[in-house]
Amino acid sequence: MYHINTTQTESKNFTNVSSVFTHQVLPVLYSIICACAFVLNGLAVWIFYRVPSSSSLVVYLKNMLVADVLMLFTYPWRVVGDLGYGGLQLKLIVCRYTAVLFYLSLYTGITFMSLISLERYFKIVRSTSAVSSFLQRISVAKALGLLTWVIMMFFMLPNSILSNQPIPKDFSCMAVKSDLGRRWHEISAHFNVGIFWVAFLLMVFCYTSIACHVYRSYKRVQQDSSQTGRRSNRSIFSLLAVFVFCFVPYHVCRVPYTISQMPKADFSSYSCFILFQLKEATLFLTALNVCLDPVIYFFMCRRFRELLLKKMPSVNRENKRPPTGIGLSISIL
Asked: Taking burial as the number of CB atoms within 10 A of a residue's CB, which of 138, 139, 155, 157 is the most buried?
């Protein structure tokens, strides 16, 4: 069973373990990324407010930003809880509300990343197909965005509603769930993991196809593909690189950790403790996503890039306009 835990809900036989890493190091790291993400996402909100939703790509990027902002609101609660403040009431708030919001935002953002890769694939590789013209419609993008939020809320919000049991003395997030809540938690967790692996495979396929298409295009027009091609590939794989760095380690580590949590698992207490620490470390990488997504906005949205550069007084007008090769590599996404 997949467990949505705070750092106080730890591996079996280690429910009250005090760890320097999880209770001292991680709160500091979360505080740092919270401060950085507040500035970066605040700037992104300000810029996207001035960017019209004139394409399906912009619609998906704006939805990604909404998911990141919602996720960001959960970090202060985690920091305070990890430092040992707030008592059982704060732990209950984290389990019932902020942890649910964190995972809701996390997998919603992953879904929009996969939609972006799919839209880019059809626009660049299959630009003449009927599916491409369909996906480019703004109304379709908005409908898919709304459908994504509705589906994710359907699977995640019951985890909050069904955490309605009295607070036990030996507190854990699973202990405050009803029997239906535990079952629904398992269903929603498997659903989320399925979303991740489908999104990962889809993105690998889409961006591999795009990279091959761009390479063939450069060869066909007999351009020097060494430097320009490298720049294009960096732009193409910016989203995939963020996805792999932030999300893959957690979902790989989650497999042995989940097995260790099963009642019949033959894991020593020390092994369970180590797996818990690894799970928390890789979960931090997923939280780091809110600081890296603005880089994706910069590379993928030309209007976002222009407005950002206008706010940088040290950048003169010549530097604002990229050379032809770079312009091609960025605008192709």
From this structure: 155
Residue 3 lies in a domain: no
Does residue 11 lie in a domain region?
no
Residue type, 165: Q
C-alpha distances in angstroms, 138 versus 4, 133, 270? 35, 10, 53
**Tens-place pLDDT, residues 195-237:** 999 999 999 998 888 888 777 776 766 554 445 445 555 556 7
Instruction: Look at residue 13 and tell me if it is in a domain.
Output: no
Instruction: Provide CB contacts within 8 A for 301, sequence distance 6+.
Output: 51, 57, 58, 61
241-282 tens-digit pLDDT? 899 999 999 999 988 887 777 666 677 778 888 888 899 999
Structural contact between residues 217 and 233, judged by C-beta atoms closer than 8 angstroms: no
**Cα radius of gyration (the chain):** 22
Domain count, the chain: 1
